[in-house]
Esterase (Microvirgula aerodenitrificans), 192 residues
Amino acid sequence: MNTHILYLHGFLSSPASEKAMMLAGHMADRGLGHLFHAPLLPSEPLAAMLAIEAEIIDFEFEPFIMVGSSLGGYLAQIMAEKWNARAVLVNPAAYPYRHADEYVGIHTHHHTGEQVVVRREYFDILRQAEPARITPSRYWLLTCTGDEVLDYRDGVERFAGCRQTLLDGGDHSFPQFGDYLDQILAFAAEEG
């Protein structure tokens, strides 16, 4: 396999998240560690999109896919449509701007402990960046009904017509992620 995998973490998460580390370790064990990338994404959406695009540009036209978790899944669909790429979406935030009232304010980052300010205009930026339509062949949705943070039905609706794996139970962290690592590498190796 010579496809880069760009892991996009969720809100208040980091490249040190459990899923990112699991995927990185799995790839390293197979001699593919040099193909794993996980940038630290700022909370401000424009800055996050620029950080993702900087990684993509560094691939110098080599093949890549994205694996996006939660808000990272939303950002992955924006980039997949813009860059004609493919993405695995893990319990993605299908419509994050619908949750603005819950998230505007000050939050503590899960990994760094720093205080993060989320402004209302962040959600306007996310809404404006949303692709008007998606190309179903680009996506694989991995979601579970037990997601306590996001309504899994939003992802099922948004990514209707895409490859979907819907699991009963679980939670927002998608604890079954480790069961899908080989399938994610197979998805990355497929021609787009």
Notes: The chain has one domain: 4-189. Helices lie at 18-29, 45-58, 71-83, 100-103, 120-129, 152-158, 181-189. The beta strands are 4-8, 36-37, 64-69, 86-90, 105-108, 115-118, 139-144, 163-167.
